[in-house]
Amino acid sequence: MTTSSSDTSAHSPTVKADVLSEALPYIRRFHGKTVVVKYGGNAMIEEELQRSFARDVVLLKLVGLNPVVVHGGGPQINDALKRIGKEGTFIQGMRVTDAETMEVVEWVLGGQVQQDIVMMINEAGGKAVGLTGKDGCLIQARKKLLADQNKPGEWLDIGYVGDITRIEPAVVKALQDDQFIPVISSIGYGEDGRAYNINADLVAGKMAEVLGAEKLVMMTNTPGVLDKNGNLLRSLSAQTIDELFADGTISGGMLPKISSALDAARNGVTSVHVVDGRVPHCLLLEILTDQGVGTMISSH
Ligand SMILES: Nc1ncnc2c1ncn2[C@@H]1O[C@H](COP(=O)(O)OP(=O)(O)O)[C@@H](O)[C@H]1O
Ligand SMILES: CC(=O)N[C@@H](CCC(=O)OP(=O)(O)O)C(=O)O
């Protein structure tokens, strides 16, 4: 089929060229800058989407940005637990993690999910390297005690869930310098020699801070943060976030995501976004076009 010069449909050559040309100022602005991408387990739902995610990451690298992937895998851990007859339990968005669950978490995150992402990025023409918190002492952690929201002053023991005590970014920087794309699983290691399960949103936020990232993009399975009526909130300030936490509009897995997004924005990450990972090429849309997608989190 031939296309006339007046054709302005999304598939016309002119529109495609316009989109490419629109990317130029963003490529210049972000050249050499680090972008941390949180790839949530819920955003990995289809193989086709996973492949388009991998292509986007490779494209960002090839045009001069430094993508760092921090991945989750909550639904994939749930599936593995089900296979051994266990049910996943969450308190304030954190998985209660006994010793057996911790073994499953290490196997699913540090093995299956991480290696699938590494393979897809490599197949798309990139050079990805998988890391857990143990590699290069990247994520140091200690046991988390969770404040009991029903009993002020008391703490809940949720097992081998970790708080990050320190990120040692040398290994990530060395990989970036050699043009590799780091793919990081959210498993921390303690001075006690134990592995700790850390919510991937918390790792992504801290990693973005410590690396001095220009952007943190969190890919999930909603259009962004929604209000009580299900409408998309395009931007969120610290004060609105406090209100949405207090009235329960933000709940479950969105709690650690928005807390760490806000911390990252407060601690120097220039722009922080929660985007819909089910939309093909949401990463490119967010980073390289005028069309912002999802919710932007700001520190004021
Ligand atoms: N206000 C809100 N807006 C959007 N999603 C919300 C909100 N509050 C809670 N959620 C829930 O948070 C989920 C995303 O968090 P999570 O399941 O941990 O995803 P991920 O695997 O991407 O980290 C959404 O699917 C939704 O069920
Ligand atoms: C302590 C804790 O909750 N850890 C998470 C780690 C994986 C994760 O965060 O995955 P998503 O990004 O897909 O939610 C868990 O066990 O599910």
From TrEMBL:
HAMAP family: ArgB (MF_00082). Its main location: cytoplasm. Catalyzes the ATP-dependent phosphorylation of N-acetyl-L-glutamate. It is found in: Cytoplasm. Residues 33-276 form the Aspartate/glutamate/uridylate kinase domain. InterPro entries: AceGlu_kinase-like_sf, AcgluKinase_fam, ArgB, Asp/Glu/Uridylate_kinase, Glu/AcGlu_kinase, NAGK-C. It catalyses: N-acetyl-L-glutamate + ATP = N-acetyl-L-glutamyl 5-phosphate + ADP. Keywords: Amino-acid biosynthesis, Arginine biosynthesis, ATP-binding, Cytoplasm, Kinase, Nucleotide-binding, Transferase. Belongs to the acetylglutamate kinase family. ArgB subfamily. This is Acetylglutamate kinase. Pathway: Amino-acid biosynthesis; L-arginine biosynthesis; N(2)-acetyl-L-ornithine from L-glutamate: step 2/4. GO terms for molecular function: acetylglutamate kinase activity; ATP binding. The record marks 38, 257 as: Transition state stabilizer. SUPFAM superfamilies: Carbamate kinase-like. The keyword Kinase applies. Its EC number is 2.7.2.8. Substrate binds at residues 73-74, 95, 197. It comes from the Bacteria. One of its GO terms (cellular component) is cytoplasm. GO terms for biological process: L-arginine biosynthetic process via ornithine.
